[in-house]
Write a structure and sequence with these properties.
about 65% helix, 3 strands, 3-stranded antiparallel β-sheet, Arc Repressor Mutant, subunit A, about 100 residues, alpha+beta, elongated
Length: about 100
């Protein structure tokens, strides 16, 4: 799958939108993103890390602590992502009406 295809995935967008707000731990992301399974969250985070959009930082403590944040490349998509989310919220009713017609 292309990078664009992965970024347009529902779960990927929600993870990225959560990271726009700052560095998050795995459990914080899981709490914020309703309905995402642990397997899917792990897969999305790995893909974003492989695409160099997200940085995974592991702290040598017990229990293990891992944080996720945007890389500089990931930060470059943050502003367009926020704009897209704002647009979607502003046009929510119109979009829902269009989907119901189909």
């Amino acid at each position: 799958m292309s990078n664009a295809g992965r970024i347009s995935n529902k779960w990927t967008l929600l993870v990225m939108y959560s990271l726009v707000q700052g560095t998050k731990r795995y459990t914080e992301l899981q709490r914020q993103i309703k309905g995402i399974s642990p397997k899917m969250l792990t897969q999305v985070l790995r893909n974003l890390e492989n695409d160099q959009l997200v940085c995974r930082k592991v702290y040598p403590v017990v229990p293990p602590m891992v944080e996720y944040s945007f890389t500089p490349l990931g930060k470059s998509i943050a502003e367009p992502l926020v704009e897209l989310c704002i647009w979607a919220e502003e046009h929510d009713k119109m979009l829902r009406a269009a989907w119901q017609l189909k």
